[in-house]
From TrEMBL, chain A:
Main location: membrane
PANTHER family: TRANSMEMBRANE PROTEIN 258 (PTHR13636)
Subcellular location: Membrane
Classification via Pfam families: Ost5
Protein name: Dolichyl-diphosphooligosaccharide-protein glycosyltransferase subunit OST5
Automatic annotation (TrEMBL), chain B:
Biological process according to GO: protein N-linked glycosylation via asparagine
Assembly description: Component of the oligosaccharyltransferase (OST) complex.
Protein name per the record: Dolichyl-diphosphooligosaccharide--protein glycosyltransferase subunit 1
Translocase in keyword set: no
Pathway entry: Protein modification; protein glycosylation
Pfam families: Ribophorin_I
Length: 76, 612
């Protein structure tokens, strides 16, 4: 079998744009999370909803910051 | 004197041995060319070996005096298949150290294994390239800034071989500067900075005739005492190379003071032995190059690149004179797809071993290949012997650390700048480890917020203010719920409105009636939900200030429901009586107005409650 070059899973040129998009999405969900925390009263707050929003926000922020690291040259 | 006595000892040995050696092989011709133009000595032996014995011979011995052998950095034997002038493919033959019996201990022997045995009367042509480090001795050992650097090279005019040599010549190429002296015996000629000895004919085995050449060589004697090359692979698309140099000028030591003025004014004369810049030939598409030392970035560097190579020229912080040291770090990134390949399910890194710097001797080279976290089954294939080890490195976002393959080699010359391969297994899912860590980090932050918002931090659970707070929260929650329910009611109203509009468009009375029935049921349900909440609020002392508003809201909403149904039945009636559109409008106009006013009031109240 001939050697096949290994490439990155996502083209390197996409990293800056991808990081910006994901971070904006992540910050949007983070804002949504904190607005929900601040405005809903203690009794009406639903734990499931909080956790779901937190999970979505942290997924976006996690991938966003990973691509930010990669785009700035910190190859993790 | 010591040298003379050593030679005397040699000659003694040789006289003993020449009588006892009965070799099958004879070197019919050997041309030795020694290149002294840089500080790395390269000797190329083109030899023709003939078998005069009766047995088939499969190996040829090469002898080097121990003095030379200890500096021998690389040896390569090429075997030319073609005959005569047509040099077809040349094959590299394995060349290894051996210790044959009955040979003098002052000599080190290398054995070249021939690809096929040499028959009786057969000949074979071999090209041997031997590369020596640290073989030019500076003499004098200390010079001033203004002096040129003189060095001494020692060799033998006769090829030192365990075989009889029929015809031989020796050519020594000098860098072209001043030649202080050279051994004129036997039969030496100096023409255009090249000294030739010979030809000599029919010399017995182990013939030796010392030759000393004393000449000027101002080539940059760049010697790296230690070079640590770290090759870090990231499957996210980069091979990062970091090289830590510990560089010294390996030539004659400088004595007296250093005059910056002299150096600056006439650096070619007053600093001929020094060097002020170094050239690195990096692989193509190298990017993110940096050059720094302990105190920060060094700005004196130049960089060119095209599709085939990248060249980096750096200037150390000061010119390097004999014995002076400097240490610095360069680093660069390379695209992953140029160096990492997939072979039979394994990953293969294919990258050069030595330093990319021009003509540098590395006394101790440590190559560390840092593989991504989660790699296993690591093996390396290096074209020359190295010391191998493994360690663990902790870097960004690591849990168990990255496996590091450490390759160590001493006496490295540019001839060692060959490709070597590192094989390892890697699962692409391991790539997700890093984002998972970041995600869990952010998630923990959110969880901390959730926990903080959900925990009751008050110390005294029975104090009046605490109880009041609890009650207030309850009131708030109830008001929110009421608001929710009212909003749902309004949504039902909107649906009912929509059904009326549908009716005026399609005239389908039946579906309109069904819509009314469902709306009725939904509203009843909502009102049922609303009742306990309103009662609670009515009895709660904390809610006294908003109770009137809530009561008004609930009343208005009820009113709205009634009006809504009234209008609905009116319109449906009219439709059943098949009245004209204008007449229907006239009939419901007043109700419509009232409803709009009520809706406005309800919205205002909701907004007011929101603000509380």
């Amino acid at each position: 079998m001939a050697p096949k070059p290994v490439t990155s899973p996502v083209p390197v040129q996409w990293y800056p744009a991808l990081s910006a998009l994901l971070l904006v999405g992540g910050l949007f969900f983070t804002a949504f999370f904190f607005i929900y925390e601040a405005t809903s009263s203690t009794r009406n707050r639903s734990l499931a909803k909080e956790v779901v929003i937190a999970a979505v926000a942290s997924t976006f922020l996690g991938f966003g910051s990973l691509f930010l690291l990669l785009a700035t040259g910190v190859y993790v | 004197m010591a040298m003379v006595s050593r030679f005397a000892f040699f000659l003694l040995w040789i006289s003993v041995l020449s009588s006892t050696t009965h070799s099958e092989l004879v070197i019919s011709r050997i041309d030795r060319r020694v290149d002294l133009s840089s500080h790395i000595v390269r000797a190329l032996f083109s030899m023709k070996v003939e078998n005069v014995g009766s047995k088939v011979v499969s190996e040829v011995l090469l002898a080097f005096p121990n003095m030379q052998a200890k500096n021998l950095a690389a040896i390569k034997t090429l075997y030319n298949e073609g005959r005569g002038k047509v040099k077809a493919s040349s094959v590299s033959l394995p060349t290894a150290v051996v210790e044959p019996e009955g040979m003098p201990p002052e000599l080190t022997f290398y054995s070249v294994s021939l690809p096929k045995g040499l028959e009786k009367g057969g000949t074979v042509s071999l090209d041997v390239l031997a590369v020596f480090a640290h073989s030019l001795q500076p003499f004098p050992e200390e010079i001033t800034q203004a002096d040129g650097q003189l060095v001494v090279y020692q060799d033998s005019a006769y090829y030192l071989s365990p075989y009889t040599v029929k015809v031989q010549t020796l050519g020594i190429r000098l860098p072209g500067g001043r030649v202080e002296s050279y051994t004129k015996f036997p039969n030496a000629k100096l023409v255009d900075s090249e000294i030739t000895y010979g030809p000599f004919e029919n010399l017995p085995a182990f013939s030796y005739s010392p030759v000393i050449v004393h000449f000027e060589n101002n080539y940059p004697f760049a010697v790296a005492h230690e070079l640590v090359r770290e090759i870090e692979i990231s499957h996210w698309g980069n091979v990062q190379i970091t090289e830590h140099y510990n560089l010294v000028h390996g030539g004659a030591k400088t004595k007296g003071g250093f005059s910056r003025l002299d150096y600056q004014a006439r650096s070619s004369v007053r600093g001929a032995s020094s060097f002020s810049h170094l050239i690195f030939r990096l692989p193509p598409r190298a990017h993110s190059i940096y050059y720094r030392d302990e105190i920060g970035n060094i700005s004196t560097s130049h960089f060119w690149g095209d599709s085939r190579k990248t060249q980096l020229e750096i200037e150390p912080r000061f010119p390097i004179f004999g014995g002076w040291k400097t240490s610095f770090t360069i680093g660069y990134g390379l695209p992953l797809q140029d160096f990492l390949f997939k072979v039979d399910g394994k990953r293969m890194l294919n990258i050069t071993f030595g330093s990319p710097m021009d003509e540098v001797i590395v006394d101790n080279l440590i190559v560390k290949v840092v593989l991504p976290e989660g790699s296993n089954g690591i093996s390396a294939s290096v074209p020359f012997p190295t010391k191998q080890g493994e360690e663990i490195k902790y870097s960004h976002l690591d849990i168990v650390g990255r496996p590091v393959l450490v390759l160590e080699k001493s006496n490295v010359v540019p001839e060692h700048n060959l490709y070597f391969q590192v094989y390892y297994h890697f699962n692409n899912l391991s790539l997700l480890g890093e984002p998972m860590m970041l995600i869990s980090g952010f998630f923990l932050l959110f969880v901390a917020c959730i926990v903080y918002m959900h925990t009751d931090m008050s110390i005294s659970k029975s104090s009046a203010s605490y109880l009041a707070k609890i009650q207030l929260e309850e009131v708030q929650a109830t008001v929110q719920q009421i608001q929710n329910i009212i909003n749902q009611c309004l949504a039902v109203h909107d649906k009912l409105d929509a059904s009326l509009r549908d009716l005026s468009r399609t005239g389908d009375v039946q579906s309109c009636k069904i819509a009314r029935k469902t709306a009725d049921a939904q509203l009843k349900e909502l009102v049922k939900e609303l009742k306990p909440l309103v009662t609670f609020l009515h009895h709660s002392p904390q809610a006294s200030h908003i109770w009137p508003k809530v009561e008004e809201l609930v009343a208005k909403e009820k009113d709205m429901q009634e009006k809504m149904f009234l209008r609905h039945s009116t319109v449906v009636d009219c439709f059943e009586k098949k009245l004209g559109g204008r007449e229907i409008e006239n009939r419901v106009a007043s109700q419509q107005q009232k409803l709009a006013a009520l809706r406005q009031e309800v919205d205002d109240l909701l907004e007011f409650l929101d603000e509380i």
